[in-house]
Amino acid sequence: MKVKILFSITLLFTISLTVKSQDFETLNFKELEPTFHLQDDTTYVINFWAMWCKPCVEELPEFEHIRKSYENKNVKVLLVSLDFGVKVEERLSKFLTKKNINAEVVILDDLDANSWIGKVDDKWDGALPATVIYKKDKRKFFARKVTYSELAETIDNLNR
Amino acid sequence: MMKKILLLSFLLISAVAIHAQGYKVGDSATDFKLKNIDGKHISLADYKDAKGFVVIFTCNHCPYAVAYEDRIIDIDKKYKKIGFPVIAINPNDPAIVPGDSFEGMQKRAKEKGFTFPYLFDAKQEVFKNFGATKTPHVYILSKNGKDLKVEYIGTIDNNYKDASKVSTKYVEDAINSLLMNKKPAVTYTKAIGCSIKTKG
Q1: What is the largest CA-CA distance in chain B?
Q2: B163-186 pLDDT, tens per residue?
Q3: ipTM score
Q4: Which of A30, A142, B60, B169 could lock A131 by a disulfide, CB 3.0 to 4.6 Å apart?
Q5: In a domain, B17, yes or no
Q6: Which candidate from A117, A118, A127 shows the least CB-CB separation from B195?
Q7: pLDDT digit string, tens, across residues B95-125
Q8: Is B119 within a domain?
Q9: b/e for B169-181, b at 16 or more Cβ within 10 A?
Q10: Model's pTM, two decimal places?
Q11: Is residue A129 domain-resident?
Q12: What CATH number does residue A69 fall under?
């Protein structure tokens, strides 16, 4: 009996964990767009990436590092995944666990890319990775891989 | 005199800087000579009867490029015979992405049955001349005598994931206009893609 209860609890726990870890919001660009124009005191660091994108994966730890060092400093890191295909949420969940990335991740599923790339930034032509950092109306855009120090310098400048 | 030299150097530097950004719609494109997967070298000048070209920077590893492979084959089959062949170019440095090696290109072309040349930009000069930044990235050129003119830059269509849900075929629309001696209605779009892999 005891074993059974223990087993059930473990099972429930596992299920709830699994469900939680796969819980990504999937948005189209119209739904995501307001996130690029928030007017509060937070500095937003928004990175476009995908699991198969090598430079994106290489820079992910830099974003995680930023998230940790700017915790409680009004900095929000959002990773916008452009992954698509079979079981994308499950694969994403496993990948992030393995890489130990705990920043918020949303999936952007908007297939008419020409309609929204320019709305992220005029200078972006659609190549991954890309990163927007902004606070209110001040913003900086990177159409390439970035480092921790570049991110930190940009955030510090925006907060000056 | 000094001022003139300064001005001249400034103009030269600006010209170089502008050139480094690659082609814009309306620019003349320079021909190239690159190795095809069959080992032969190909130039656009080899295509005596072509009215133009669909130059597509693409590669083996990028999921966007892979998603478009069948559509690129369809475009080539449809337009090669009426004067607009597809010329695919892999611009990536295989030292960064091993899957995009010349052997990888041969393998992928065989698997998919590519109907068009698949060229390797081994020195990574051609994509820089064009100003391509990602795969897939399309440049439609029209040919008038020896002059190659850039008529369209951008994406293939408006759904990178699902060919059956495409509602605007930018590349086909542009070629259809050019075949009727008209300017394409849309000459520039932004394409999502994998950044071209280069050491600089």
Answers
A1: 64
A2: 999 999 999 999 999 999 999 999
A3: 0.80
A4: A142
A5: no
A6: A127
A7: 999 999 999 999 999 999 999 999 999 999 9
A8: yes
A9: bbbbebbbbbeee
A10: 0.85
A11: yes
A12: 3.40.30.10
Query: Which domain, by its residues, includes A75?
Result: 23-158
Calculate how close chain A gets to B98, using CA atoms only, in Å.
12
Q: What is the mean pLDDT of residues B57-83?
A: 97
CATH of the domain at B189: 3.40.30.10
Q: Tell me the three state secondary structure of residue B199.
A: coil
Judging contacts by C-beta atoms under 8 Å, the chain B residues touching residue A88 are none
Predicted confidence band of residue B200 (pLDDT cuts 50, 70, 90) = confident
Q: Show the low-confidence residues of chain A (pLDDT under 50).
A: 15-21
What's the N-to-C CA distance of chain B in angstroms? 36
- Measured CB to CB, residues of chain A less than 8 Å from chain B are 50, 52-55, 82, 84-85, 111-115, 117-118, 124-129, 143-144
* pLDDT of B167: 96
Number of domains in chain A: 1
Residue B156 has pLDDT above 70, yes or no: yes
- Note whether residue B181 is domain-resident: yes
In a domain, A6, yes or no: no
Whether residue A115 and residue B62 make contact (CB cut-off 8 A), yes or no, is no
Identify whether A14 is part of a domain. no
Contact A114 B193 (CB under 8 A): no
- CA-nearest of B104, B70, B83, B187 to B138 is B187
Q: Going by C-beta distance under 8 Å and a sequence separation of 6 or more, which residues neighbour residue A160?
A: none
Span between the terminal Cα atoms of chain A, in Å: 62
